[in-house]
Amino acid sequence: MLDSNKDSLKLEAMKRIVAMIARGKNASDLFPAVVKNVACKNIEVKKLVYVYLVRYAEEQQDLALLSISTFQRGLKDPNQLIRASALRVLSSIRVTIIVPIMMLAIKEAASDMSPYVRKTAAHAIPKLYSLDPEQKDQLIEVIEKLLADKTTLVAGSVVMAFEEVCPERIDLIHKNYRKLCNLLIDVEEWGQVVIINMLTRYARTQFLNPNINEGSGGDKTFYGSDEDEDEDEEEKEKNPYVMDPDHRLLLRNTKPLLQSRNAAVVMAVAQLYFHLAPKAEVGVIAKALVRLLRSHSEVQYVVLQNVATMTIKRRGMFEPYLKSFYIRSTDPTQIKVLKLEVLTNLANETNISTILREFQTYIKSMDKDFVAATIQAIGRCATNIGEVRDTCLNGLVQLLSNRDELVVAESVVVIKKLLQMQPEKHSDIIKHMAKLTDNIQVPMARASILWLIGEYCEHVPKIAPDVLRKMAKSFTNEEDIVKLQIINLAAKLYLTNSKQTKLLTQYVLNLAKYDQNYDIRDRARFIRQLIVPTEKSGALSKYAKKLFLALKPAPVLESPFKDRDHFQLGSLSHLLNAKAGGYQELPDWPEAAPDPSVRNVEVKDSVRAVGTVTFRDTGGLWDLQGPQKVEGKSDSASGSESGSGSEESGSGSESVESEEGSESEEEEEDEEEKNKKKKKKELKKPVQETLTILHLVLCLQTIAPSSALKNYELLHRITGEGLSVEYCFSRQPFSPDANMVAVQMQFTNNATSDTKNLHMEDVKLQSGMRVKEFPEIGDINVAVIKNKRSRSCSKFFVSIQPPVGELMRPIFLTENEFKKEQGQLMGMNEITEKLTLDAKCRNEHAIVQRVTTAANLSRVPCGSDKECRFAGRTVTSSSLVLVTVATKEEGAAQLTVNCEKMLIGTMLVKDILLALTQ
Amino acid sequence: MISQVFILSSKGDHLIYKDFRGEAGSDVVGIFYEKVTALTGDQPPVVMSHKDLHFVHVRQGGLYWVATTTADSSPFTIIEFLNRFTALVKDYCGSLSEKSVQMNFALIYELLDEVVDYGYIQTTSSDVLKNFIQTEAVSSRPFSLFDLSNVGLFGAETQQSKVAPSSAATRPIQSSREQGGKSEIFVDVIERMSVVIGTNGVLMKADVEGEIRVKCYMPSCSEMRIGLNEEFSIGKSQLRGYGAAVRVDECSFHQAVRLDEFDSHRILRLCPSQGEQTVMQYQLSDDLPSAPPFRLFPTIERDSGGRLLMYLKLRCDLPPKSAAINVCATIPVPKGSVSLSQELSSPDQSAELKLQNRAVDWKIPRFPGGTQLSALFKLEVPGLSSASMLEVGPVGLSFELPKLTVTGLQIRFLRLSPIQPGPSQRWVRYVTHSDSYTIRI
């Protein structure tokens, strides 16, 4: 059929062949016939042929070569899908002869226009590497190039390739670190997992341990909630740990991924937080992990394994979710056991009573293994928490009367362990257990009881010989393990109470002497020599008492998960508790922080490398010397270099305004300032490309100003000697502190010379009346901008005046809620003004627009069209601000503002009045 | 990194086998099956290893879906991948069963080829895959439904006459492209509740997990708007209005859902891609808006003849219009129970002593709301002691509540815009399953 002319027949034939492959049957003898069809026009047939080729090319190398030329043609196809699939198949054919061809194809595809093809190229890299490891150096070059790629599609795949080919070349990541962090949220989920894992490793080598300063007991953390990159060494000494801003960036950007639908992503972020975040912040992952407990049982199993490890180290984290770990009757046994483990780890003085009550009901379960595990768990709780030891012990003793042997046996074993800790108090329990020997049949339990009696025979002097007598009677029918303990008991009794038990011991030892098991025979012989004084016995028998009745240390019941935390969480090795192939140990934190500047500088470098366009700054290059000194310097360096390279560019080229941003965040005042630099540039080559490149840099760190926002002038260009500064209130939530208002500043240099080292100096909070009256104003800094020039320094005094409307954030209310809240804010808190609306502002839309421009409020849905309602909360005090604009005929209107803070109310009324009437 | 992926039937037949990296021998399938069958217990461990090779598997649709790996890759990735892959196969083949997999060898092989490249997962989004698998659409043989016509969408039997045949939703997404005309959307609101009721009848723990699933057979993707109850609120603080609010503690949405209208009007907007997807998931814990659906009033005593008497009254507190179906109460009984005699209040019920599980299963096919059923069980237990009375353990209930959500979540409307040309059918279904409903006695 394959030789037929008709595509449909070929298709049918190919399908049958593929079905054979799928079932694992050998179809290799059809190879020549199939290969012929590789050039087939029909895309369906072609795809199936590809499938076939990939499977069998290795076996029939010579014939496979016939098809190579087709793929080479395919690589030049205008359709990106065909290019990609040709590359994919080409790289999947594992024939060593074509390595050079593959290398060439990958290199070409790496600079392909289509990101999809570039992604395929990234996937092809590990394939080629496994085929011929000698190509490593060349491949690393390609990886380096692809790492610089800015599309989300490529990022995940290239990091996969990086991990496979050259995970040790961590230096390749430096310059792409920030980009990866920022792209992360848009990368497709499988890529996210790989990138997060890679970044975890990277962060472990590059940043300092955030918990380094913590004492063993204290929960206090010293890290600043904001970026602090003060280079000053003395500063560093005083303030022992400050988190690297890049470290912070990583944590901040991964946090939203905890909401991911993909369990793998959630777990990857969770392990990242667990390994990297300061103690106080690890808590956020608990909720996400608990959420994972609601998915498939397979996922549950793995999550619980990880949670169990985490609970040992950070118990507090999961305590609020205790109930989520309660066992459901439908859980499979292994999950039940894991949940028990977690519950046991979580138990402490406060919640132990609830946990024990839960455990009590679990004991009734029908699942034997689970019941046994529960009893063990009770034992562990009892050892860990002293207060409940007696309660537990009593509970366990009650279980001894259970009809189920397994339960009884398990309880005996646990009681034995518990009693060992404080035997003096519990001789009655030992007596009770001695009675049980008549009933219990499970050998392990019998052995445990006998051991207990022997060990503490001085506490029960009357019963012990009696038990031995009974045991001696049934000796021959016992299990080996019990027999050994009987001998033990006999020996111990002989030493403490030889009068009563001498004969019995002799009898037991004689029985043991002829036992079938050589172990028992050996033991009997050994003990006889040791304890029974004969003329031959040496010095040892003197010490027999010491040997047998030495104090034995109580066993420590600990979690089987105790030693697991040296494996990276979420890894296969952790799950197996053994090293899996290719497991990479998570590196320890470095002693001293490696130079953080590697990341900064290289970002610029990569920009320059990609954009071959050079530009000249006629307008001068602004540099921010804020707290981010290093970045500032590199900025100017790269800028001036590139600037000088194009000195001779003609004046006929276009001039374009373009922005380059850098963010400076000040930590001392907890105030974030978004700074922007505007550069005027003359561009020599394609303008668009530069723009996009610069734009990308911009996107990394700054929030582009939205046009709807009102700009205020901070420094006019004449007074500022060419420097003008504008600011606006971005109205975006200020992430480090919800009680702050973000101010965005925009710097424009209109002068002819470079201005360098621009920084804020002497930033003061405004004190006095306004601060007292409006606590919100405290958020806004009054800045003094110092402008150092090459010849002189200039200082400008500026101040930021926030309108009252910016000191609030919008909230959402329903109409009912609005009315209810309004009802509570009557009287003194209500301010009403009559006004005549501006002629342009008669319709609803215009009113809404003007009010929201004046104040940062959100609209409340409203039944009547005569009324517009708005609601918000002040940023610091969270007091409610409600605004109503009721319109009447001919532009008359009434404005009502309800606000708890009367002063804010009056000021807001003024502002809105102004906005509506002008 | 995945070395191989294979699908095994429960009997151990190879259905699909694909080797991505050529790292492991071909006899791994056999090794895996031996390992799985050698283990006893209700569930073999998720990860098993043989020498350097690690098997990760999930069981769905009665099949083993296995991936192997040699390197240390995140087990989550593999498990999640297998789950996604089963979902994809379900989308493309209509249902998950040995038969459907067998009939679609070529298609699944294609899928696998696109999803995984050299052991690296490329994408599992059906939107992206559509571009590549398109060529294979014809290759999926029209899949016959006759043998599945009595199976519900989620394995659940429904007894509603007004509803579309339950098999309607189990068809491959691609056949809709061929048939063209019939465009349908199924929306299911599924809730699972786990409840623990204490000995004194007090609700000790209640958890409801719900999800809204959309299964879409629209040839062209248009925007869909799902309106939920207006009173729907999330979290404790955010109570809306004064009426009976529908409250959940937490909810999460599919990434394709746009929520611009959610805050104001509780409308979810999305462009569903073909196949099945979970649009929204939500949880409610520790608080049920209404009384728990079942209460049990047990009396347990020992009669003079040494038999154990269990008199059970089971009350259904659902609204009178609704009913629970397939109710099954499992009552653990003391060890050594030999035989059971029963008195049930109506003939359609049945009860049976399962010696293996040491439990009595009491089955009630249909249980209307507001009614009460009673049963008297007499158990012959040799050597009955007072201690063994304690072994009458917590009663587990499994049931299904069709046309009802415990949280009260309802879909107000389901609109498609722009309006589809030709007839489009929209189905909405509500169902609540019991996840674990335990009554302690």
Automatic annotation (TrEMBL), chain A:
Main location, first listed in the record: membrane
Residues of the AP-3 complex subunit beta C-terminal domain: 678-801
Keyword field contains Disulfide bond: no
Keyword Protease assigned: no
Keywords assigned by UniProt, alphabetized: Cytoplasmic vesicle, Golgi apparatus, Membrane, Phosphoprotein, Protein transport, Transport
Localization: Cytoplasmic vesicle, Clathrin-coated vesicle membrane; Golgi apparatus
Record membrane topology: Peripheral membrane protein
InterPro entries listed in its UniProt record: AP3_beta (IPR026740), AP3B1/2_C (IPR056314), AP3B_C (IPR029390), AP_beta (IPR026739), ARM-like (IPR011989), ARM-type_fold (IPR016024), Clathrin/coatomer_adapt-like_N (IPR002553), Clathrin_app_Ig-like_sf (IPR013041)
Origin: domain of life: Eukaryota
Biased composition (Low complexity): 635-655
Annotated segments matching region Disordered: 216-240, 619-684
Biased composition (Acidic residues): 225-235, 656-672
Gene Ontology biological process terms from the UniProt entry: intracellular protein transport; vesicle-mediated transport
GO CC annotation terms, alphabetical: AP-3 adaptor complex; clathrin-coated vesicle membrane; Golgi apparatus
Function description: Subunit of non-clathrin- and clathrin-associated adaptor protein complex 3 (AP-3) that plays a role in protein sorting in the late-Golgi/trans-Golgi network (TGN) and/or endosomes. The AP complexes mediate both the recruitment of clathrin to membranes and the recognition of sorting signals within the cytosolic tails of transmembrane cargo molecules. AP-3 appears to be involved in the sorting of a subset of transmembrane proteins targeted to lysosomes and lysosome-related organelles.
Family the UniProt entry places it in: Belongs to the adaptor complexes large subunit family.
Protein name according to UniProt: AP-3 complex subunit beta
Protein encoded by which gene: LOC127353124
From TrEMBL, chain B:
Keywords of this entry: Coated pit, Endosome, Golgi apparatus, Membrane, Protein transport, Transport
Places the protein is found: Early endosome; Golgi apparatus, trans-Golgi network membrane; Membrane, Coated pit
Any one Gene Ontology BP term: vesicle-mediated transport
Cross-referenced InterPro entries: Adaptor_comp_med_subunit (IPR050431), AP2_Mu_C_sf (IPR036168), AP_mu_sigma_su (IPR022775), Clathrin_mu (IPR001392), Longin-like_dom_sf (IPR011012), MHD (IPR028565)
Ranges in coiled-coil conformation: none
Annotated membrane topology: Peripheral membrane protein
GO CC, alphabetical: clathrin adaptor complex; clathrin-coated pit; early endosome; Golgi apparatus
Domain MHD: 182-440
Highest rank taxon of the organism: Eukaryota
Main subcellular location of this protein, as a coarse class: other
Family indicated by similarity: Belongs to the adaptor complexes medium subunit family.
PANTHER family registered for this protein in UniProt: AP COMPLEX SUBUNIT MU (PTHR10529)
Function: Component of the adaptor protein complex 4 (AP-4). Adaptor protein complexes are vesicle coat components involved both in vesicle formation and cargo selection. They control the vesicular transport of proteins in different trafficking pathways. AP-4 forms a non clathrin-associated coat on vesicles departing the trans-Golgi network (TGN) and may be involved in the targeting of proteins from the trans-Golgi network (TGN) to the endosomal-lysosomal system.
UniProt protein name: AP-4 complex subunit mu-1
Organism: Dicentrarchus labrax (European seabass)
Originating gene: ap4m1
